[in-house]
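Researcher:
Attend to token order:
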Amino acid sequence: MSLTITDLFCGAGGSSTGAVQVPGVTVRLAANHWNLAVETHNANHPDTDHDCADLSQVEPSRYPRTDILWASPECTNHSQAKGRKRNADAMPDLFGDTLPDEAAERSRATMWDVVRFAEYHRYSAIVVENVVDVALWVLWPAWRSGLDALGYCLHSVYLNSMHAQASGLPAPQSRDRLYVVAHLRKTTCPDLNRWTRPTAYCEGCDARVRAMQAWKKPERTWGRYRAQYVWRCPNVACRNQVVEPGWLPAAAAIDWSLTGERIGDRTRPLADKTMQRIRAGLERYTQPELLVPVEGRDGKTAASVWDAMRTMTTRNETGLLVPAGGTWNETATPLNQVMQTRTTRESEALVVPLRNNNTTKTAADPFDTFAANGNHHALVMRNNGSRYSGAEMVTPVTETLRTLTTAGHQSLLEPMSVAVEDCLFRMLEPHEVAAGMAFTPGYLVLGNKREKVRQLGNAVTPPAARDLIAAVAEALGHDLTSINAA
């Protein structure tokens, strides 16, 4: 048995990439309004039919019917639920540049296109991806009523990409999204709990458990991980203790074979605010007592997300991710954590204090690079937008990436000492951004650097699409014994 998918607002192909990881699932058609994104999608999914079009102007009859519809409508108008669109593309990046006009064009497609296509094709199932704030949209109840009137049963799934691990590894990034899973009432409801509840270690039970989502305000089941909900152990013996699911660290996305340019040797000096943030980050996070090796000590070795997560300490490990652009993220996070959420105007930089004459090794090398004295550390920095000293904009590289975006303000700092001028600095490369989004290795993204980062930042993380499509496919009678969720 095979299942076919239509991918509307497909972008660079994150949703399609995740969907085809489910055995027997094929993407028959992918459409988007940006030609470069369509070309990127076609380069990686050559067996899929493609269309570059403003989907709000397309008649649904133009496309063939498929079993499943995946749609990722434009999220800009919903990101703050204010009904006023912000021109994020007009915001300059670290060096004062803006995106090309073509990339800055906004699709006029809206959430209502999902209803139009559903009315015509009556897909067996639909998955709609958007920011969590879309549920605060004044027409959200009306939009849901539209699908309900067409005979669909709707389920809202609030899933962070760092927890999409039912049938494979998650993304090393904290990216909160709302997924609406709809299916015709005559079909079986998907077992979404089984495909979206991550594995965690419960100290109270001393066992691995399938964590359950627990809302801080049970009467309002909306929001983001940690802010509005947590994960708890399902066992009453430990009084449903709060647990932390395992994750992939931000360090997993960094290409350690790349080095930067000494800041003191730059012909184009960094902005004063950038220098201030670097100094603040170094002062806050490069104290010797805070430097703890990731590997080679206390059994801290890489582990599967299905294994119990190792005990987290209060010490920063390996390095830092620091905001480097206009951002609402204000806290630094260590490299052993997932990257944090970012908006389309945000970016991050990587700072790695190298000491005792040690050198950076490639990502293929074992992480003994970070062993022994813990001398190899990284810091990702956003270079503008802070209202404070700048240290709060630092994210340790041991944590997950902030949500990857399209602006491309990511930079890498590798300090040879605590003097800023002696630090090596570079922007994160597109392939590192792709790794942070959990695209498959070697995924080809076309365009210049900013266009590549824009496509990646707007994409769906493949692990989220993989697990949700698997849940839907199983409900439609698809045989998934080869990847069945634990």
